[in-house]
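WARN no homologs supplied; continuing
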Amino acid sequence: MGVEIRAEGLVMTYGETRAVDGVSFTVASGEFFGLLGPNGAGKTTTLEMIEGLRKPQAGSVRIDDYEPWKREPERQRRMGVQLQSSSFFERLTAREQLDTFGALYGVTAKGRTDELLEEVGLEAKDKTRTEDLSGGQKQRLSIACALVHEPDVVFLDEPTAALDPQARRNLWDVLRQLNDSGRTVVLTTHYMDEAEALCDRVAIMDSGKLL
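OK structure emitted
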C-alpha cells in the first residue's frame, strides 16, 4: 500500500500561457501531500499530468517505476482519482453508483459497497439518487467511487471547494482516514487551513511555478 511519486521539470503551456513552468517535487510512500495555491496557479494541470490525463510537454513523472501517461490498465488500477467536478451516472442511487463503478473495475462484492458507504458516512443515503444528495454528500460519494478498487494512491482535486464550512470539516474526517490506511494521498487546495489540518508536507504554487 502506498507509492512514491517523482515529478521532474514538468511543463505545460496553453498558447502563450505557461500553466506549469518547470515544477519538480517528490511524494513519499504513505505521505499526505498538498499542492497549495490560488485559483489559476497550475495545481490542477500539474495533477492531471501526474494522473496521466495529460502528457507533459517537458519533464517526467514516475509513480514508483511507472509513467502514468502510458495508461497501462493494470498500473492504472493502483490509482484512485477524484476530479474537481464530479460526474455520476444519471438516475442511480448512491449504492447503485458504487456497484457500477465497482463493476467497471471488476469488483462485484456487495460487502465492498457496504464498507465504502459506511466509510464515507452515507449508509443512510444508500437508496437516495445522487441528484438528491447535498454537495457534501456528493463529494463523499465521489471519493468512495475513487476508492472502490482499493487503490494505493489517491488524487483529490479541490474536493471541498464548493462546500460550506461544516461540510468541509466533515469531509476532512473522511480524507484523514484515506491516509491512515497507508495510502499515498495528493491533494490540491487553495485553503491554507485545510492544508495545515490534513497534509504532512505542502508545496506552494503560483503562476505555474513551485515557490
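The chain has seven helices and nine strands.
OK
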